[in-house]
Amino acid sequence: MPRNKTIQRDAAMWLLRTMRTIRQTSERIAALYPTNVMETPVHLCIGQEAVAAGVCRHLTDADKLFLGHRTHGPALAKGLPLRSLMAELYGRTTGCSHGYGGSMHLLDLAHGLPGSSAIVGGSIALGVGAGLAAKMTAQNFLGVSWFGDAATNAGVFYESLNFATLQKLPVLFVCEDNGYSNVMPRAAHSAHDIQSLAAQFMPACTVDGTDVLAVYAAAQDAVDAIRTGGGPQFLHCRTKRWMKHQGHERCDLPENAVDVARDCPIHKLEAFLRDSGLASAAELVALARQIEGSIDDAIRFAESSPFPSPHLVEV
Amino acid sequence: MPRNKTIQRDAAMWLLRTMRTIRQTSERIAALYPTNVMETPVHLCIGQEAVAAGVCRHLTDADKLFLGHRTHGPALAKGLPLRSLMAELYGRTTGCSHGYGGSMHLLDLAHGLPGSSAIVGGSIALGVGAGLAAKMTAQNFLGVSWFGDAATNAGVFYESLNFATLQKLPVLFVCEDNGYSNVMPRAAHSAHDIQSLAAQFMPACTVDGTDVLAVYAAAQDAVDAIRTGGGPQFLHCRTKRWMKHQGHERCDLPENAVDVARDCPIHKLEAFLRDSGLASAAELVALARQIEGSIDDAIRFAESSPFPSPHLVEV
Amino acid sequence: MPWSKFDSTYSAPLTGRQISYCAALREGLDQAMGLDPRVFAIGLDADDKFGVFGSMSNLTHPERVLGTPISENAMTGVALGAALSGLRPVHVHLRVDFMLVAMDQIVNYVAKWEDMFDRQVRVPMVIRGIVGRGWGCGAQHSQTLHGWFAQIPGLKVVTPSTPYDAKGLLLASIADDSPVVFLEHRWLYKNMGDVPAEIYTLPLGKAHRLHQGDRLTVVANSLAAMHALTAIEQHGLDVDLIDPRTIKPLDIDTIVDSVRHTGRLLVVDYDFPFGGFASEVVAQVTERAFTSLRLPPQRLGFPDRGMPSSGVLERAYYQTPERLAAVMQRMIAGESVHADHQALVVPS
Amino acid sequence: MPWSKFDSTYSAPLTGRQISYCAALREGLDQAMGLDPRVFAIGLDADDKFGVFGSMSNLTHPERVLGTPISENAMTGVALGAALSGLRPVHVHLRVDFMLVAMDQIVNYVAKWEDMFDRQVRVPMVIRGIVGRGWGCGAQHSQTLHGWFAQIPGLKVVTPSTPYDAKGLLLASIADDSPVVFLEHRWLYKNMGDVPAEIYTLPLGKAHRLHQGDRLTVVANSLAAMHALTAIEQHGLDVDLIDPRTIKPLDIDTIVDSVRHTGRLLVVDYDFPFGGFASEVVAQVTERAFTSLRLPPQRLGFPDRGMPSSGVLERAYYQTPERLAAVMQRMIAGESVHADHQALVVPS
Ligand SMILES: Cc1ncc(C[n+]2csc(CCOP(=O)(O)OP(=O)(O)O)c2C)c(N)n1
Ligand SMILES: Cc1ncc(C[n+]2csc(CCOP(=O)(O)OP(=O)(O)O)c2C)c(N)n1
Ligand SMILES: [Mg+2]
Ligand SMILES: [Mg+2]
Q: Do the domain assignments include residue B2?
């Protein structure tokens, strides 16, 4: 990957900051979760940070990103403020969905997050709809559909690819393939190869989703191609889920065991930054500490925010 | 197609008789339809007879065939008696669905027709279910899913292929590709190539669906492979719809104009039979006349059958 | 916003201009697209030469009319995504039955989206579905389902019965910032009526009195409203006929006021009977106007089974103005008829 | 047929054997599979180590338990195709909400198939759906929808409230030759109750009186039945509590008999309120027992909006035994409460 070497320091530091924010926030959620302060199911992204960071670096606030149930990583990478996320998990009125959504339903219109859904598959079509709106109004934003490997089993996935191609829409499909649907491995749920199947409809590439520079480079190509009017693109990112499907516990599937040197996107990027001299070890430590501070702040914010007061909106 | 030449006379004559039955019955329906004796929407198969005949020749009464809205051809080829079909179109109690189904809902349990559906796509899954039943009960029948080109746009199509392959089920998928969804041409509804897409899941072959001997040979291979435990197979038959999507009128789309020598499966098979000496011209004329007689009989039967008397089955 | 100047309390004056229900729908859509460049139409066969039974023929802005593959579920999501990105889609289905393929999107997505985010984002989209009946359409091509959709919070349900309503309610539905399921009956398409040429919207949630009377309140929508009107006029019945026009929001006040006056209620609901719109009307009226009721309220609708195909069976399955008239006459006579849905299938 | 020897009029004697609702479901399925080799289970995560919240753990015939991809629509068609080919599938969904992906199959196919062919072919299949509530499940993971399914002709709808019913009704549903939607409430899973070890079936369409009383008839199913029972017992209320057990077919006779005696009706229906099960009960009771009613019948259920996520909002959204008790007491006191669904969301 020759392009890795040419990454600018600020881009690389953005990627690291974003991944660390996702990681450290997720670890903090996992630590707090057993205390029941967050009454909402959580699907954590630990291990998968590179996909969120590497793709979202190329997106603008105008691009509209539609997520499924595993929201925190890509939402933070897209710009959702930490305070808004944390307050939503705490069920507070200052949360990004005012306490009406919870972990699986995040909204941030200012940062191009028009919502996310807990029903697997369906939100893929919404990103296509955003692309259609961009095309019909001759605006320059992308629709982005973000989903897991198992969402490729849902019929709506194919219907969405077909229509995006027929209409040549500016849509980026991002498959965050962690190899599992809950505890069901990919081979048990998919007879097809995801990239090769997507390639029946549009340009599709598979990338190592634990290597943020690889994701960054591939996403750059895909986004550029879309922005220059080339129609939809498919990015298939193979990554790893370190946690159980839901909740605060580590994944205990032996076949899915983690090897940090091989699997950790943060470890790998930090090694690259140090080795290439783009950042010093001390800087990296400082960054981690700074992020920890923002998380402390977000939690204080959430804890001190009011609960929503029940009311019915008249229809 | 070397295998064409080796077809047995009785098989070839069966194919001809079946295609002629479908054709002549359809022409008769088209002639009668404007008189309003059949109060039901009809989707005729004129031009597409080779697919029904070529495939169904290899199916037994135990094999379970699930159809969509364009039913008459494959249903007759599978064994539905002409009288039962005609009486159903006439809304009579002697119809195969006792007058409750109409043209789009045909049933003949004795001949492996457990029903058909007017909602495009869904019945594809039912054939897979039949295959699952065969596998779970270790019986030797096939599930057969029969559908048009536009049904490949429905999500249930992919879901069905995926599951059939995951479970290695004895299922034959037959795509009767007439290039249209009503007046919408294939290129407007499908960004994918049907055969190549199906091949992502299972062995898939495209065949000239206006050449009954080609369909016959390809279906033979597919059915043999399934019966010997090879899992699902996909048969993509390119054919031509001579009529409008629905009703008794000829198709008037200039791009879809018919060239009998090129497009007519009956014309082509009769030429082959005569040229190869398998049948004489006189024999062919006699066959056509004989079929006409059966159609007369079926219509008399339908006309003289009682209408159902309205009643409610208690639930 | 181009819509704010259309006050829904304003009644466009009737000018004697007669057009069909179908033409009224077409005109409403065409004018909405002309008024607001965010409005577009999408649907299977929406762009073909048949123009959705004529209701979308020759629109002024064909570049905003999109045909789709047979992918109703994803297409609903596409419409939703477009609505969330600044457009105002009108998604059309040739048959209500095809909407069932899209129920995940309609119920889990479209209906829920505003609620899940505390209405920070709005979903201005219309889903048009056409109700079929007769000619052996059968069980999969004849469903109505207005009561079923209305059960889902987050969906408005609109069922116009006249050309005037068709245009005004379609424009109001497109103007609305929340999802509207707009159900048209195919058997009304040819009906002619007075329709102003100007743009006008009718309020969603306001019933319309189709006939004034004192002895019986009949609530009926869509085709049932027209059949009830025929029954009343042909037999000169003293009936207060109320067409709710929108199943949800439901103008229960107008219905209750009428029942307070007549003391008798019949709901004619061309839909499956169990827990449908008619049941809701009966339940609400009983809760609110209990002491005014002089007879037990009654419901007339479909039998509780799928539609059969044969003409003789269809003609037994469906209500007709004649059958409605018979039940109305008995109720007016004070008979406590038990309008058994099932019994009506056996023609007497 | 292995099922014919289980007479549904037979009550299996209670033996004091206490097992949970979840264990009762598991036992019922396990015994059905043991009794009849045509019975198999299919569903997303049906075969994983969690065993559908324990309701399918360690079944005796794992070879007849199939996990599936996230393809609920096709999988329903697969189950239907298998049912039409001689098997008796039990299709399980971890959440009722996931069934919405399969509505084309459930409504257009499964529910219609017998009707379309005049019952020449039968569709013996059970669709299990588990109802969620709480812990921020939110609008897409908490739907109940029993009234909604019941509106569709061709579907039976079963909603057991006790371990005894869970087993007996599940066995009866599997024994039934027509499609059954079987809805279990997740909050009932841990409840313990007396469950005979033997195989038994309970009739579909027969209500069960959970508490005897004279002053008020309360109709409630599933979790609502248990909450109503708690309310009645904790407050010593003179209430006739009827659990219909099956929403469809509905044992309206038992309900009407009770109302004839008490003169008052409250339906507690943990579901969306518009045109739901409660509306149907009120409508039918009003039609049949009009002159016996001393108060307008009332309904209590969910507010007419999607479920919010935050705990404080959830606790306001849902009914509790305390809230039910308050309404019952007022009705018993003869107050003509107007049990406004909406008002209950604002805790007072
Ligand atoms: C239609 C539907 N079926 C089932 C579920 C339950 N469910 C939630 S997440 C999940 C696994 C999804 O796997 P994948 O798409 O690979 O995403 P991942 O969780 O691995 O990020 C399942 C089965 C659901 N939410 N929606
Ligand atoms: C879900 C659904 N959407 C739309 C329709 C309306 N419809 C009936 S047949 C048809 C065209 C189907 O084309 P194809 O599958 O190629 O079959 P063909 O008619 O060409 O044999 C359409 C759109 C339907 N029946 N079901
Ligand atoms: Mg995954
Ligand atoms: Mg076709």
A: no
